[in-house]
Amino acid sequence: MCREEASELSSLKTQLEELGVPLVAVVKENIGTEIQDFRPYFAGDIYVDVKHHFYGPLQRKMGGLAFIRQGVWQNLMRAWKAGYQGNMLGEGFVLGGVFVIGAGNQGILLEHREKEFGNKVENEDVLEAVKRIVPVQ
Fold first, then answer.
1. In 10 A of CB 15, how many CB atoms?
2. Does residue 37 register a pLDDT over 60?
3. pLDDT tens for residues 11-32?
4. Which end of the chain, N or C, is less surrounded by CB atoms within 10 Å?
């Protein structure tokens, strides 16, 4: 499902570039050709957080019981119907998120942490947050 969200966020790349904001993904691992396989869905730079600093000291996870949640199944079906397929490599229970981080001391302007697999951020919310970034002089 992260491929679906990556593709949707990538649709903002031109608008982000016009605003002087890069599109960046931080992933937790690179097993086999995982990043290479992800590249067609994401138009920005991709970094591997080898030490998992970006994910914080307590990684947010959803265990196997996630698959009894109706929302997870709805999100899986939405992604599948849109033609997105995931991979079965690595540790797949860590929840992701989307952040808009301002310049200088502005800090985090948007923080969207997945509540369950496939819980996506709204592109409009991302653009609103990006437009609040004040460039450092």
1. 15
2. yes
3. 999 999 999 999 999 988 888 8
4. C
Annotation marks residue 9 as catalytic: no
**pLDDT digits 0-9 by tens, 104-123:** 999 999 999 887 766 789 99
Whole-Å CA distances, 60 to 3, 70, 73, 78: 19, 19, 19, 23
Which of the following is catalytic: 2, 79, 98, 130? Answer: 2
* Cβ-proximal residues to 64 (8 Å cutoff; 6+ apart), any chain: 93
Distance CA 18, CA 129 (A): 14
Handedness of CA 85, 87, 91, 96 (dihedral sign): negative
DSSP assignment of 10-49, as one string?
HTTHHHHHHTT---EEEES---TTHHHHHGGG--SEEEE-
pTM over 0.85: no
- Cα 35 from chain centroid (whole Å): 13
